[in-house]
Amino acid sequence: MRNVFRGRTLSQCAILLLTMLPVAPAAAESVSGSQRRAAEEMLGAIASGNANVVALAIHPTELELLRKRVIDLMRTEADRDENGIRTRLFGPAMPLNDIERLTPANFYAIVSRRLTLTGRDYDSVNWLEAVKDSGELVHVIGRGKPQRDRGNVSVVVLVSLVPWGKDWKAAIPLEVQAQIDDLIAARSPNGTIGAAPPLLAATADDANPGNMQPIVQLLKDAEAALTASKCDEYYSRFMSPNFRRLTASKAQKSLVVACSNKPEVREVLIAALRAARESKPRYDYDATRAIYDLKGKGLPFERFVLEQVDKKWYVAE
């Protein structure tokens, strides 16, 4: 042994000694069967790309705490006549009343549309160790073996768990929690704090062959009628003659009654008009239909359409 170290510096001897030390085996036994099942359920849910499936894999108390925390923040914000957090998490058109009625799982599923959470399908996972964190939180770490047609690189995976009775259930991933906090604070992922990026307003120069002013005026006047609870005026004056001709009078009366009696109905209509004003439409049918893409605005529909009849603009549907 002495001959091995003869003539070497102290640093060289230290490095050589380290290479001779036995390597401790991975502590796979520290991950219990229940922890494995919970972690693999979460990995499978993430790989599915379905936010509702992910919500089912997360501990119910975790989801409820997230829901309560965010709703409390939105209520405080609403008391100041502000809606920045609600807009960034749910879109400007989803009323706070509707958000408050969401179950914890549905709350998470809707918020997740604004988040990035990706995963892979694994043939198997070699779980290495469970690392205790603060409170009851435990992180289980392993190497995911890819499926046969996905190469041969094993990927390091980490799933955070919390106790669930005698078993374990996934916690909301810390990366997801960080992204939600970024949205709440209007902060970009690189840590810059600032206002949310402004929505683009339509202008007369944006692929519009005509003047935008009549459309803008229609949207303003229709919003004013709804704000004043003049639902009969909204449907008789601002809805397209084609809509009124093709919709049975009984159905039209039902729409007016629902609009008049339910503030949440008016709120959705007003939100759609405002979202249209803040967006750029595409035009169809020789520029007689203006179609607004309202995906991600928190509305129960994904588009809003105006149409021109006898050179006058109306809400089409």
Structure, explained:
The structure is a single chain. By secondary structure, this protein is of the alpha+beta class. Helices cover 46% and strands 17% of the residues. The protein has helices spanning 2-5, 10-20, 33-48, 51-57, 60-79, 84-90, 96-100, 104-111, 174-184, 213-227, 231-238, 241-246, 249-261, 263-277; strands spanning 122-132, 138-146, 155-164, 167-170, 282-284, 289-293, 303-309, 312-315. Strands 1-2-3-4 form a 4-stranded antiparallel β-sheet, covered by helices on one side. Strands 5-6-7-8 form a 4-stranded antiparallel β-sheet, with helices on one face. Helix 3 packs antiparallel against helix 4 (51-57) and helix 10 (213-227) packs antiparallel against helix 11 (231-238). It is elongated, with a radius of gyration of 28 Å.
Total strands: the figure is: 8
Mean pLDDT: 83
Measured by DSSP, the beta-strand proportion falls in: 15-25%
Largest sheet: 4 strands, antiparallel
Could you give the order of strands across the largest sheet?
Answer: 1-2-3-4
Shape: elongated
Salient structural properties:
alpha+beta, 8 strands, about 45% helix, 4-stranded antiparallel beta sheet, 14 helices, single chain, elongated, about 325 residues
Tell me the layout of helices and strands.
Layout: H1 2-5, H2 10-20, H3 33-48, H4 51-57, H5 60-79, H6 84-90, H7 96-100, H8 104-111, E1 122-132, E2 138-146, E3 155-164, E4 167-170, H9 174-184, H10 213-227, H11 231-238, H12 241-246, H13 249-261, H14 263-277, E5 282-284, E6 289-293, E7 303-309, E8 312-315
Antiparallel strand pairs: 1-2, 2-3, 3-4, 5-6, 6-7, 7-8
